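Throughout our pipeline, every protein is held as a single compact record rather than as scattered files. This encoding replaces a full spatial description with a residue-level series of whole-number codes. The remainder of this section carries one protein's record, kept here as part of the documentation.
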Amino acid sequence: MSEEILINITPQETRVAVVENGMLQEVYIERSQKRGLVGNIFKGRVSRILPGMQAAFIDIGLERTGFLHTSDISGITEDYVPEDQDDFQAPSIETVLREGQEILVQVIKDPLGSKGARLTTRLSIPSRYLVFIPDYSKIGISQRIEDVMERERLRNIIMQYRSSITRLAVGNEDNVVLYSAAREPEILAKGGFIVRTAAEGIPEEDIHRDIEFLHKLWDSTVIRAKNTFAPSIVYEDLPLVMRTMRDLVHSKIEKVRIDSKEIYQRVMEFSKLFIPEFLGRIEYYSGEHPILDLYSVEDEIQKSLGRKVQLKSGGHLIIEQTEAMTTIDVNTGAFVGHRNLEETIYKTNLEAAQTIARQLRLRNLGGIIIIDFIDMQEPEHRRQVLRSLEKHLERDHSKVAISELTSLGLVQLTRKRTRESLEHILCEPCPTCAGKGSVKTAETVCYEIYREILREVRQFDAKKLLVVASQHVVDMLLDNESTSVAELEEFIGRPITFQVDPLYTQEQYDIVLM
């Protein structure tokens, strides 16, 4: 499988496209005026505690306060769980936080819609091969590293390095909660690590260099937190291009193409420090055509904004995003198959499973997702379709949990959402339909106007009335026999005049009493 990363740079926007076998799989967009917040660490202040929700609002200097739930407060589970697990009750939010308290928090979900950022006090800082967790004593290994010997090797590298260094612990000062509870000084100083998938097969010296880098970065973050006032940012994650090189580049990536000479040089400098083995695969793209026209990436981005996705067989998907969940409906469409109905349905569902996995990544759909596969009679067919979906979702960078296929052919899955979906980044609700996806017919609006006129003349004394509406509605009022204005005028005993406003949508109208 060939994989490439295309990076398009403009002064206002950066776009990153991940392409596998010539087909777009993922798109990341970052705008200079609206950078993502996930990973950033803030020194915030508790502005309000909500005992009923076991949560708090934290002022971190943004337009909306962030949301911190007790489940995201470090130490709640580790420090308070007694030996008798059955009697365990988590402490209430009031015993952990108080209004006005200053606290270090990290953004784990960008503000979505009307909701503020989701926060945690379980701070973590990633590097190329590791994630450093200051308030943590253990070493975790990515589940995608399956080789037992390699997992043990990586664990030993970190354990041996930790035991060979001595670091000073940083305590709590000036009412700033750096850690949720007292820990052993040595553990506080060294912290814990999660070994990332990219560390597989990496030499010991490179792992050591990453550990030192993360320790220095954390030390500078702590110093900045002590010397600044809340609310303020104390650690900012890398911009999108550098995050791409840190998080998305792996051994199977054949090329990274960048269409900006300046950014290309910065990426080369970054790579010399952190991924020198990858330098030969980074290219400056100076082609005549825009870089995202390669592999029809631009066209694929446009298609991903539509609700209908065509399958090669002739079937199609209908994808609907709502506030609560995303639904995906699978249809055979024009596909009639060659053998029998069950085989046609089975093949359509198999193709749909692969396409759905790609669309989830491409559109960055998160939260609850309901997939309505076409009903299958054969139990083996249902198992194969579910297995195919699971297989193709293995490549997803976000955490996905899948339920069993129900008798109705429904599959429920959850996909971790940390940033806005592609549609929410690129689009806004339609001003005409207000996001409904449909508008009232002109005839319906005509009858609404009739009812409103009757309501107005019963309440107010007016000699005549003026109706202001869209062109289509006014035309129907004047020309359609079923909406006779003359009859209405005779019924209310007052004349009615009409005025077209070209700025009015089909559902908008005003009735002026004169």
